[in-house]
Amino acid sequence: MGPTVHSPQEPGLPAPAPSEAAAVSNVGRLAATIDRLRRQIQEAQRAAEGRALIEVAKGILIERLQCGLAGAAQQLELLAEQAGVSQLELAADIINQAAQDRISEATREFLDSARAADEADEAAEAADVAVRLRSAENGMVEAPDAQAVAVSLLEHALKPLGATNVAVWTVGSDGSLTLAASAGFSAVEAGRWRYVPPGVNTPARSALLERRAVWVRALDEVGLPSIGMTLTPDGGRVAVPAGTGGRIMGVLEIGWPGPVGPQPPQVHKQVEALAELCSHVLERPVEPGGGAGQAELIGLAEALPDAALVLQPHLDADGRLTDFRITHANPHFVDPAGRPKGAVAGSLLLEAYPLAAHEGGLFSVVENVHATGEPFKAENMTLTALVDDVPLPSLASVSITRHGDGVLLIWRLQDEATRLASLLQHAQRLGRIGGFEENTLSGEITWNRQLRDLYGMKPGEPPIPLERLADHAHPDDAVLIGRFLRTLTHHRRPATTAFRLQRSDGMARHIRVVAEPVLSPDGRLLAVRGAYQDVSSQHWTEVALAATRDQLAHTEQQAAERNRLALQLQQAIMPPSRGPMEAFDLNIAVRYRPAEKEHLVGGDWYDAVVLPSKQILLSVGDVAGHGIEAATGMVVLRNALRGLAATGAGPGQLLTWLNMVAHHLTDNVTATAVCGLYDPETGVLRWARGGHLPPILIRGEEVAELDLIGGVLLGALSEVTYEESRVQLMPGDTLLMYTDGLIERRDRALHHSQQQLLQTAGHPTASLEHRLDHLLTHSNSDTDDDTCLVGIQLVAPGTS
């Protein structure tokens, strides 16, 4: 046995078992070896990619300088040394200048911004961007499949931007999205998102529908689902349509681990350049799962029963879509302008139909279908053609679909007969009308679909002949149906009737049937045709209206009776006119003008009576409301005031008591009133008011209202004290009390009407009676309310 070798160890630490130590040492060596080999492979890949770019640049120099391979290599080395850059950076710059594509545009963005900032740093960054993008392009060209393309994109171009994952979607003919490749996602996550049906809103679908790059700061902020959202719900995304020539073949979606803020225009250019690189990889002559070549598309158009056009995209020199070429028109093609198909086939769409270019018109729809692959269908689309420079609109049913790189446009013009037939069908549906025709010779019966629906019949059930109409009707309607059939088949005259249909599902419908006989020249009955209409809703409406009319008539009768009673009550207490009366040295006149409409009978009252104390009670009032309630309330307050006045109390106290009557002894009666007591011995009039307009004093040529004193509405509050005022009447003075029916108008404020009344009251008249009549005649009120008017005039000395 050989000598044993002991390894040194720190004191106090147990020595590892020989097998464990060896295992740890071997794993570490293996990991280091794997890491070294991975770095070598990456360096080899980068070197190979760099050599590929350098070889492309040499080829460009050979073409430009007309030199050999060795001369191109020497020239590249010399130019790089003179410019102070590496041969790889110079190669990328030469390719950019030769290509003039989106990658070179992205590089120029950085170089342009370098003029306003640190030129050296910006130029270096631009060179780095060019190298990365060209390396990514080279990796995509050499990639064996789409998955390798995604890996190359992420490794060469996206990781320097901070992105951690990428997905490449292809667009189906139905607008669906299929995950063609991905990098940075697990296999499980990629499997879950391998297919996105049409209609599911994702960042990629938003970019497809909007046909532009869509930047999302964080997925959880917009609520859009997408691949990888469970791992980085707050991750940022950008989705860019990938397409050429106006056609979108797919969508490039790039993800960041966290929210992504606003990016400079240079980054936007890089992303768009990468999307364009993807479009070249995704482009195929035939679309998977349902595309068609040009010959197959023409064959499809030929087999269609409607007018069809086959369209191919028309590109400009820069590869941008400008129009669509009409490459074929099928035999059923009908031009809205009446031109033969030979005049349309071969021309551009906007040349043949220039008015299709308006916003939202036919061209924009075709362009969107070609770009996104999402089919379009419309029942009533307006197609406008120019006929001798005159726009001619036509309605058509339009269908547009994409097949490979071509577009199939199908339309069916709606002629007058088609439109009328459609209009008739909708009218029958809305009116719930079903038509029929019954051949009396052959027994053949024809029903339309609406009639079958009225009967509640299932498809395939035979129609019901007229002679069996009573079998499906209410028994009480048999007589009406028999009379209808005799008139129609025996007397051979048009007939109509209504009956209650008993359907097989147990429902009962009210049906009106109208029919006419079809006679031969010699008078024989050949057929019967007509229509059924479901009038159930009309029947029940008429029943409800009849009940409502009966109830309304009864209500009107009750209201008229109440109004008649109210009017009789009011006229019994206050006749419209009373003769003049004299009391001591006063002339007293009253007028009452009832409302013109009986239902507006109100609660206005007046009173003028000599009290036992020899004082004269003068009052006017107005109970709120109309009708019997207002009339009875007026009676209560007027009689109460008379009884209270017999106590000898003053006007203020009388209104205080009257307010208590209105508040406590009536059913929610409120009123306004003016109460006055005239003392013949002193010539003094004491007065008080409860929410009423003040009296008017006419003295000589002066007309004015008495000074307003406080006093609230009667019945509003339980405890109220009313103010009292005095006025000394002079011989010849006239005092007027009135209710608001004399002056109230709907179109002006009350104080304007009061001013008008003062002017009218000052008009000179022969007597007090004439003055009151003049006021009523020239009243400008328009509310048709009751009006009470009381006038007193103090007799001048020496007059009787």
UniProtKB/TrEMBL annotation:
Pfam families: ANTAR, PAS_3, SpoIIE. Keywords: Coiled coil, Hydrolase. Residues 27-82 form a coiled coil. Residues 495-547 form the PAC domain. Residues 34-95 form the ANTAR domain. It comes from the Bacteria. Its EC number is 3.1.3.3. GO terms for molecular function: hydrolase activity. This is Phosphoserine phosphatase RsbU. It comes from Nonomuraea coxensis DSM 45129.
